[in-house]
Amino acid sequence: MTLPIFLIGARGCGKTTVGHALSQLHVCQFVDTDHWLQEQAQMTVAQLVSKEGWHGFRARETEALEAVTAPARVVATGGGIILSEYNRKFMREQGVVIYLSAPVSVLVDRLEAYPKESQRPTLTGKPIREEVGEILAGREALYREAAHHVVNAAQDLDLVIAEIQTALRLARAS
Ligand SMILES: Nc1ncnc2c1ncn2[C@@H]1O[C@H](COP(=O)(O)OP(=O)(O)O)[C@@H](O)[C@H]1O
Ligand SMILES: O=C(O)C1=C[C@@H](OP(=O)(O)O)[C@@H](O)[C@H](O)C1
Ligand SMILES: [Mg+2]
User: Which of 61, 92, 157, 158 is the most buried (most CB within 10 A)?
Assistant: First the structure.
């Protein structure tokens, strides 16, 4: 695993969880753009957004993406990283991009159980059930455009990892 692997997908699809597990299996480094930028700014995402707005957060997110990208790394991104055309092109050119795809009902269940509001302030001001569907509808095409592989993230963690490993093996063989 030499090229960086970028995990993309909606809030709650499992980018951080899967990325961490995958890096442990492959004994490589794990980085999460949200963790990196929060550490760098010494602020939570919620604090950053209230101080600098989403525009400021998105600028820091691109900075984080560039800073953490390195060979043999698994990079968990934030759900909105694909909003920027620059980020989509950067990830596709620099590494292998995997879209962790899950239906709205699964995302909502996971986010209700694990909201982590300091990292996931509201994007629309609407209730979670409405917000997740609306945001995913607006972003689905961008996730697919950026991705080299689409993986079913609604499965158990070990099956998600196995599907990613198969995709990576196939990519190496072709
Ligand atoms: N395959 C999975 N099956 C069940 N729960 C999962 C799975 N992947 C992630 N989760 C859970 O969903 C929640 C959100 O996961 P997280 O990794 O923070 O998602 P993301 O980084 O994509 O927003 C966490 O509580 C995590 O334990
Ligand atoms: O979908 C989004 O726009 C966001 C997703 C969050 O990351 P996760 O996808 O890890 O929850 C975080 O980057 C920020 O709250 C914005
Ligand atoms: Mg995450």
Answer: 61
Torsion, CA 109, CA 112, CA 116, CA 117, rounded to 10: 130
126 is in an annotated binding site: no
The residues placing their C-beta within 5 Å of ligand 3, an ion, are 15-16
What is the ipTM for the molecules in this complex? 0.99
- Residue-by-residue DSSP string for 109-172: HHHHHS--TTT---SSSS-HHHHHHHHHHHHHHHHHHH-SEEEETTS-HHHHHHHHHHHHHHHH
CB 14 near ligand 2, within 6 Å:
no
Q: Is the pTM of this model over 0.95?
A: yes
pLDDT digits (tens, 9 = 90+) for 94-103: 999 999 999 9
119 Cα–ligand 2 center, Å: 7
pLDDT band (50, 70, 90) for residue 173: confident
